Structure formats: structure tokens, C-alpha cells
Amino acid sequence: MWELVRAERLGLVELLESLDEEQWQVPSLCAAWTIREVVGHLLTGPTIGTFTFMRTFFRSGRDFDVTLDTLARRCAEPDPAEMVARLRSVADDRWTPPGSGPEAPLTDLIVHGQDIRRPLGIDRKIPEAALEMILTKTIEPRKRSVVPAGRFDNLRFEATDLDWSGGPPDGDLLRGPAESLMLAVWGRPAGLDDLEGPGVDSLLRRLLAES
Fold it and tell me: What is the pTM for the complete model shown?
């Protein structure tokens, strides 16, 4: 899995090297962040360190979201060329959040990679095994602490382009491409555009309530 993490980082490096200054300022799918801040966020874990993260966390009133936003914007201060160089230099980094394995940075890279690519109209084929891993781990009950409580209650998810489904059998169904399901469960309303079923409106209402 660490090889997949490395490949994702280097794939983003190649993409980012092709962007012009205006594209770095395009709003991403991640609320309140441009593509530049998303890249800053992807640099946070490998470059900030635990001490700086915890100090920022306490100075932010123990608000996790404020901490992530503060650090992403700090890491986005250098010029784009320097940011790309830093991302390349940490391609082999194996930092993970406490208690997590390589699935955490891999998920972060793939989801945020689509936050960057989709607004720019850039397509990519995400490995099916990675999509299945992200979907399964995101909606399973013991991992739901990483998303707001209640987001997936009584919802069932079904991919149309790979053999994957999740959630209670009698839950309100959301059905569509696995990539769009991934974006939807990670709180991106844009992912709902490609989905169908009674669960689509339910999840949209929950995402809007969280914002």
C-alpha cells in the first residue's frame, strides 16, 4: 500500500507541474479551499510534525477543522514551484495519523486528488482496489469517527462499475459510479450529481446541514 501512496504523490506532482498560475487559484471540491490550499493540506502531515500540529490544535481551541485549515494555508504560502518540490521530496514519507496505517494517507491523496482534478476537468482512472478500500473503511461503523455522526444512518451504497456495496440492506439506496460514491461519502455534494436513488436527497440534506 505504501507503493500506492508513493505513486499517488508522484502522480499529483506530475499534474501540478502542468498547471498555470490561474489554475492554482481555482476553487476545489473541498469547501473554502482553492487547489493551492488542497496541496498545502497534502503537505501538512509529512512536513509539519506532531509537535507543531498539536500546538496549532490547542491554539485553535481544540478545533480539528480549524487546525487543518490553519496548517493547510500555512503550507500553501510558498510559491507553487516550491510546493511541488516539497511534495516530490516527501513521496516516500510514511507519516500517518495516530492509530492509522497507510490507508489514511492513501485515502487523503485520492480524495483530495479528485478535489483538484474534477474542477479542472481532468479525468483519471482510480484503481478499483483503492476505491473499494476507501468506500468500505469510510462507511464501516468503527471508522465513522472521521466523519460527522449520522451521515450514513439508514443509507445503502451500491457501485455500478465495480462489485461493491455497503450499508444496511433496507437503507435508502444511493447507486452510481464508485468514484462518485467516494466523493459523496466524503462530503462532496458534486459526487451526488452522478448518483440515483432515494438516498441521494437524504445525504444531500445531511451534507448541507453540516456545512
Answer: 0.94
